[in-house]
Design brief:
165 residues, Tetrahydropterin Synthase, Chain A, single chain, 4 helices
Length: 165
């Protein structure tokens, strides 16, 4: 049977403070993840290489006419559970931060031409995930820590980044 909200909050506060039911437990640190989606085009290559060398190294991804992906972006933050709300972070706040700092710049854009913070960077998924980390690292509430970003380029290919940890 569920506790009324007021009692549930008091129970959580006692549990996390090490009160009678939660003696010695301390604050629970939990990870939460929000998945977002964007579509973007790009072309992989190096300007200082010949077309032939770019094709050898990057294959179809160096196509002069570009190509695109339907990316999935998983952003994981970690923090202590707020005993009043039961949240680590309201996932709407995480969604809004990622949309404002990342998705709005990337969705239906050309990574090589349209995204200022990717200018001059070969837009591999590896480089993109690090750039996304840099965009988010200082933009989240102080109560959470950016823990991990997973960027899915296809349903079979993804990269993970944890801030150089």
């Amino acid at each position: 049977m569920a506790l009324p909200a007021r009692l549930a909050a008091a129970h959580a506060a006692a549990y996390y403070s090490g009160g009678p039911e939660g003696a010695g437990k301390g604050m629970a640190r939990v990870r939460v993840t929000r998945r977002l989606h964007f579509c973007a085009a790009h072309r992989l290559g190096r300007d200082d290489w010949s077309r032939e060398q770019n094709e050898r190294v990057f294959g179809l991804c160096s196509n002069a006419n570009w190509h695109g992906h339907n990316y999935e972006l998983d952003v994981t933050v970690a923090g202590e559970i707020d005993p009043e709300t039961g949240y680590v972070l309201d996932l709407k706040l995480l969604r809004d931060a990622v949309e404002q700092r990342v998705i709005d710049d990337l969705d239906h854009r050309n990574l090589n031409l349209d995204v200022e913070w990717m200018r001059g960077v070969n837009p591999t998924t590896e480089n993109l995930v690090v750039a996304i980390w840099d965009r988010l690292a200082g933009a989240l509430p102080a109560t959470v820590e950016l823990e991990r970003i997973v960027l899915w380029e296809t349903p079979r290919n993804y990269v993970e980044y944890s801030g150089g940890k």
